[in-house]
Amino acid sequence: MEFISIFFLIMSSTTGPSVRIPYTHPSLGAAFGEPITEADITFAIKREPVATRIVFAVAHDIFDSWFEVKDLAEKPDETLDRKIQAALLDLKAKDVFTQMSVFERGYGWAIIVIGYEDEGKTLADPLKKPTKIEELWPYAPTDITSIREDKKEDSERYGFPEYYFIKKPGMIRRLKVHHSRVLHFATRLLDHPYKGPSVLESVWDDLTTLRNVRWAMGQTMYRYGSGFPDVELQ
Question: For the whole model, what pTM was predicted?
Fold first, then answer.
């Protein structure tokens, strides 16, 4: 009996090299039937191959081919596409929209804050007489600490965001951004007026099942790959 106690003590130990399979709850990031949090989604995107493909790879597929601008005027400007693409390149628009798509697919919605050259003094001021777009910044829901909705019942934006409050790691203060300076993206609206579900929600239980199967198979090979112990006690 002393041998068996020592055996199970060793098997339950949490020490060892970092590459080992940990003896812990197998569902990390994808608990079957549980509410899905942003932290769970982040974990799944980083650690689950299927989630990485659905979120990252598809987002890149959407924008990698980019687009071409065609002038439909009777006398088209053959240089129009080159001029527009040069301006978009300066803004790093392709990278920004790709990152936005990663956020939107992963968390259900995302925004791009537009840095205008206009008469407004701060991002909190309503956009007024813009003359130029200077910068683009993509933000995920994990960066947005709160949203102030328009509460005026006679407003065309009643119930929709009026201000976004943004704080990324390393920021000392939150940014207050007026909606007129924001592009809001949510392509799968269902039970919320402006926040959609993650693309991973519909496959979450499958991710959970596959993760647990792989974990169990890995544990079996790690523990018993060299053979099952045959213990005889007198």
Answer: 0.81
